[in-house]
Amino acid sequence: QVQLVESGGGLVQAGDSLRLSCAASGPTARNYPMGWFRQAPGKEREFVAAISWAGGGNYYSDSVKGRFTISRDNAKNTVSLQMNNLKPEDTAVYYCGAGRTPYETSWTFSRHLSHTWGQGTQVTVSS
User: In 10 A of CB 113, how many CB atoms?
Assistant: First the structure.
């Protein structure tokens, strides 16, 4: 089973940028979609961004569209999330997820939580 390790979280001010990274190890994840979800205290885990196995078909939640950019490097088995113009409402634990269905589209990936997850990384945005 694929193992995922996130990094890059931290405490920033509103308007700042952060870049999250997720390294995948074990069986290759390159034939599966990957993405990011987040979970704020007292709330359910919600979709943020996804990218297809081939590296295209990026899909974003409305709340981050235009501010966040997802990318992946299949040669390095990594996926990244560039977050610009951060807002206090972006505060959450961010989880990297790898799909379990080969060639699943990023849209379908965004619609459920049956993924392999990393341990999460905290992002805190102060106003």
Answer: 12
pLDDT tens digits, 1-25: 789 999 999 999 999 999 999 999 8
CA nearest neighbour of 61 among 82, 80, 47: 47
91 Cβ contact list (under 8 Å, min separation 6): 40, 123, 124, 125
Residues whose CB falls within 8 Å of the CB of residue 104, separated by 6 or more in sequence, listed in order: 32, 33, 53
Say how far apart CA 70 and CA 10 lie, in whole Å.
Answer: 18
Amino acid at 96: C
Instruction: Look at residues 26, 46, 25, 24 and name the one whose alpha carbon lies nearest to residue 36.
Output: 46
